[in-house]
Amino acid sequence: MVIARKIAYNVIFNVITKILSTILALVGIGFITRYLGTNGFGDYSTVIAFFSFFGSAADLGLYNITAREISRPDADEKKIISNALALRIVSSLIVFAITPFFVYFLPYSRDVKVGIIVAAASFVFSTTYMVLNGVFQKNLAMDKVASAEVLGKLLQLLIIILAVKLNLGFIAIIFSVLASMILNFVLVVYLARKYVSLSLQFDFAYWKKFLIESAPLGFSSLIIFIYFKIDTILLSILKTSTDVGLYNAAYKVLENITFFPAMIIGLIFPLLSRHIFSDKKEFSRIANETLKVFVILIVPLVVGTIFLADGVIHLIGGDAFAASGNILRILIFALVFIFFSSLFNNILISSNHQKKLIVPLILCAAFNIVANLILIPLYSYNAAAAVSVLTEFFVALAGFFLVSKYVKFRPQINNLSRILFSGFIMGLFLFLFKSSGFFLLALGSSATYLALLWLTKTITKEDISSIFANK
User: How far is the C-alpha of 163 from the C-alpha of 154, rounded, in Å?
Assistant: First the structure.
């Protein structure tokens, strides 16, 4: 089918570009960690945590609801996009305007406060172009967004290298984020014009109707920020910048891997929205195939991290961040639950049950804050990592319960035992050849895992050819 071929192309192209973006991001982090040290990288991570906070505060749930609404049959795409874009710009500018007053009361150095203001400016551009992603999702053209993001990452890396080589300091590093977001914004707006006529509409009656649908998601986004990033902010207040730096050297690895579930969900979300009411059988097939793909990705990520975490951290930060290896081994299990919760939560959104997420997310956020406040003073970054894992577990569990109850979706993972067996053999390879070099271990174990998937017929020639079939 044409749609299948377009999905296959988008998946392959996005995997390639996202891997490239991740490499660029990790190289950039490598320069930053070595230039700023554990203390300076802690300050950098604090600023980036506030960047995420601003995005959550002004999110309003617009991205997901926009993508859902324009995917409906006979949707007035121009009206939806134009009003969502205007609403997002207004909310972003409001948050940016109040940031200097908010920053004044924070217990940080002048550089960190200036960095937070720059991050607020960066978020104005990032959140605005994110609204337009729904247009590319609907048209199965996420390759264009991915290309823009690669160029943004490349610009950011070039500025980071320039700042390090010329010793321009902490603020120049932060400005690399702003430059990247501006470039992404310009490129995405330009590319989106191929699919929809862009303008700003201030239909306040429509805004009200739209916000009634999106506000629960916006609130959920803020809650998600609390349990996803509040640990960094609490570490910056309760402990030292060095603790923040060590924790975030591991956390940055986790963040850069989460593109896998986000990318896949972004591609299949319009299909979930299209079939959730009209063809429940097809909806269940798509959701279960997505689950299978998630498990195929999760197993080698967990097994590989257990054995290779120290090597990964050494590549990113050097010997100064050696303690981050064990943090990464803990955090990788949070990623497992992020995969599942991202699917369950988007199923709820596609079925108009997003409001059901609010109470569970509030409870998870409350647990996260209380547990961090109690445990961080005692166990520092190890506590923050363990609490992150538990929080993500509770979020995934809540999502599973809600989709089972309200959507009547029963997850089924085909060939689960074969996938786990392939992961076991991969782990055995890593254990037996643990004295080999990092890159040999990484490549060899990956090849072993893929070979076992093929030999056990977890992935078959028919699976691959069916994706590219014309019919």
Answer: 14
